[in-house]
Each structure stands twice: as C-alpha cells, then as structure tokens.
C-alpha cells in the first residue's frame, strides 16, 4: 500500500537527483567558459592589452558570481524542502 510518507520521500529523492544533474552541467559549463577566458586573455595579452584586461576581469567575476548564485539556490532549495507538501 502506498502511503503519503512514501510518496513524499520519493518526490524528495527525485528532486534531489534532478537538481544534482543540473548543478553538474552548470558547473562544467561555467568552468569551460572560465578556461576559455583565461586562454584568450593570455593569447591577446601581447597585442591587445585593454581587451586582455577586460577578459581577466571577467574571469575573476565569473567564479564569484557563480558562488553567490549557488548559495542563493541552496538557501532556496532548503526552504522549499522545509515546506509541508499538500496532497
């Protein structure tokens, strides 16, 4: 017999698994973008100093913004899991 508690547990497990997949894809894409910016800044350094400086600045801002966004999403996810589920 399926009880409400079993359904709630299955729903939470599903939410955690789907969220983890999105987190991994997002982290990999931001990491790839960061690497491309660093390589581009190194290549452009000798000819275009200002453009290289802008790319380095973006390369510094991206990890900071990703960390802030990750913390906001974690807080939001925790609040959502604390709410009671109505059926």
TrEMBL record:
Keywords: Membrane, Transmembrane, Transmembrane helix. This is PRA1 family protein. The chain crosses the membrane at residues 24-45, 51-70.
């Amino acid at each position: 017999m399926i009880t409400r508690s079993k359904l709630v547990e299955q729903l939470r497990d599903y939410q955690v698994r789907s969220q983890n997949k999105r987190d991994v894809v997002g982290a990999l894409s931001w990491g790839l973008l960061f690497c491309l910016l660093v390589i581009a800044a190194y290549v452009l350094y000798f000819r275009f100093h200002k453009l290289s400086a802008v790319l380095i600045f973006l390369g510094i801002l991206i990890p900071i913004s990703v960390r802030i966004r990750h913390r906001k999403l974690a807080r939001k996810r925790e609040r959502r899991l604390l709410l009671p589920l109505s059926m």
